[in-house]
């Protein structure tokens, strides 16, 4: 790990860790067993599970453009690191020097777009290269959807998690007002996140974007 961090600083690169998840048809219990097998096994085990459609790259069915730039087909056969071009809405997990990484924007607190926004900042503001590690990977263990995921309208819990409808029950369907518009809480949440996303992208293009930080973390390095 220290060597990876030094290479991040010296070469202005981040190390992308390809992420996988189990197929939703397996359900939670079997999905967790497959996830454990994938993370404990070697790359050959991962290739076998992928060929059996027991797992696929993370969010392939829910939000493929978040991870497809990693090029998982190439990664499965790769023995050496390779660079990939940043694509809009790319959101891989990666290793980067703590001294250089931009913070999450706390305006996105809750669920949705905070990681996408941070990755965009790494690529567009700081001009880091995305370098895929050929021998390290992550496997998402399926779980029940969180309250935030339910409000956002996607399962997000990985393979086997029950997909929620965009409008939940109880408080999620409560009618509230925001910026002169009255709608269910879940719909207003979508609108708020979309508005924040639009503002952040606009500021990035102007060269004036700065992630909003909690006061407690401003000097945490």
UniProtKB/TrEMBL annotation:
It is found in: Membrane. GO terms for biological process: protein O-linked glycosylation via mannose. Residues 148-171 are annotated as: Disordered. It holds the Pfam family Glyco_transf_49. Its main location: membrane. Residues 151-160 have a biased composition (Gly residues). GO terms for cellular component: membrane. Keywords: Glycoprotein, Membrane, Signal-anchor, Transmembrane, Transmembrane helix. One of its GO terms (molecular function) is glucuronosyltransferase activity. InterPro entries: Xyl/GlcA_transferase. It is a single-pass type II membrane protein. It comes from the Eukaryota. PANTHER family: GLYCOSYLTRANSFERASE-LIKE PROTEIN GNT13-RELATED, GLYCOSYLTRANSFERASE-RELATED. This is Uncharacterized protein.
């Amino acid at each position: 790990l220290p060597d990876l961090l030094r290479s991040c600083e010296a070469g202005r690169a981040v190390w992308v860790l390809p992420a996988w998840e189990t197929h939703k048809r397996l359900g939670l219990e079997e999905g967790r067993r497959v996830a454990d097998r994938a993370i404990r096994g070697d790359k050959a085990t991962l290739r076998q599970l992928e060929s059996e459609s027991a797992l696929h790259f993370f969010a392939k069915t829910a939000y493929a453009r978040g991870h497809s730039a990693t090029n998982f087909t190439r990664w499965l056969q790769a023995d050496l690191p390779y660079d990939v071009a940043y694509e809009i809405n790319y959101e891989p997990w990666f290793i980067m020097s703590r001294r250089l990484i931009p913070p999450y924007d706390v305006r996105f607190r809750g669920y949705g777009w905070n990681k996408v926004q941070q990755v965009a900042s790494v690529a567009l503001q700081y001009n880091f290269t995305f370098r895929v590690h050929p021998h390290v990977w992550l496997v998402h263990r399926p779980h029940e959807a969180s309250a935030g995921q339910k409000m956002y309208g996607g399962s997000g819990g990985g393979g086997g998690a029950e997909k929620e409808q965009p409008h939940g029950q109880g408080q999620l369907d409560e009618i509230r007002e925001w910026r002169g518009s009255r709608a269910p809480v879940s719909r207003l949440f979508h609108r708020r996140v979309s508005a924040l996303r639009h503002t952040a992208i606009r500021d990035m293009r102007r060269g004036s974007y700065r992630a909003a930080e909690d006061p407690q973390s401003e000097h945490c390095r």
